[in-house]
Design a protein that fits this description.
It contains 5 helices and no strands. By secondary structure, the protein is mostly helical.
Length: about 130
């Protein structure tokens, strides 16, 4: 009986060839953004806060560091990571409350998460630059 089920299993599952739907991609990106917010995000934020509050000289050092375009791009990336995680988290909370469970609604809410997070990131990026 068990041999019958073993023959129906896939022999080689290539995850790079499987096309994921947009809600799955947004969910995976939500998890990745959470990890990025936790490990490099929290230590960088705490170090920046320390420089900000330690003394007027360290505040000037932080200002000169933020004049570097690479640092600004990194900050914009982390702003996007935060905003995507926030928007996708709100979407996941709505899904947990059984709002937007239907396939069409799930796809639409995934598109909205991407659009809103990118739009807010562009807005804050323009303000930052």
């Amino acid at each position: 009986m068990e041999a019958k089920f073993l023959n129906k299993r896939p022999k080689h599952l290539n995850l790079f060839k499987i096309s994921q739907p947009l809600p799955a991609i947004v969910s995976i990106m939500h998890r990745i953004s959470g990890v990025l917010l936790f490990f490099p995000g929290i230590p960088i934020l705490l170090y920046g806060l320390q420089l900000l509050l330690e003394s007027p000289e360290s505040f000037e050092i932080l200002q000169t560091v933020f004049q570097n375009p690479l640092v600004k791009l990194t900050a914009i990336f982390f702003i996007w990571v935060f905003l995507h995680h926030l928007c996708a988290g709100i979407r996941h909370l709505a899904l947990d409350l059984h709002y937007g469970i239907a396939l069409g609604q799930a796809r639409t809410s995934s598109q909205w998460v991407l659009a809103v997070s990118i739009l807010l990131t562009l807005t804050l990026g323009i303000v930052l630059w």
